[in-house]
Sequence to fold (163 residues):
Amino acid sequence: AVDQARQRSLTLSSLDVIGFHRPDIQTFNELLLLYPKPGAGQWGLAGVIPDNMIVSHPTRLTPNWYYGLPLQPVGPTLVLDYPSDTNRRKDYDRNRAVYESELKVPYHLVFPVESRQLRVCELVRGRYTPVRADANGRFPIPELELAVGLLDGWVRYWFRGEL
Fold:
């Protein structure tokens, strides 16, 4: 969808700038995330595809057409999804359950493109809990030195306090 593509583009360009200052912050777009799951098919693997995924690791990671856990040194720190109420191309509810209970991704951002209702959740004691917005209406992600908020109706990123 056009709005999803626009949000993905804003995210990627913003995170590219942040990656210049923090090369450990690596962003992947629509990359298959494979993970071990007993009883899942012939190889015991299952997969999920976040719209965007941020991994924090000091060495440049170079996955090809998939990001295989546990073959990679770290899992994602933040997964970002941009669901559409009118174009159900993915099962975002299933994705969230996988991020939360199977992959234990520390942060999950959801931005439905029609309603423009940004939600950021943090994994606390095995469950996603909403992150509270700060005084500026932004959701902090301290591990990445980021805050996430809406500007002109789109998800934008503040790195060390700067847009």
Remarks:
- The longest strand covers residues 119-124.
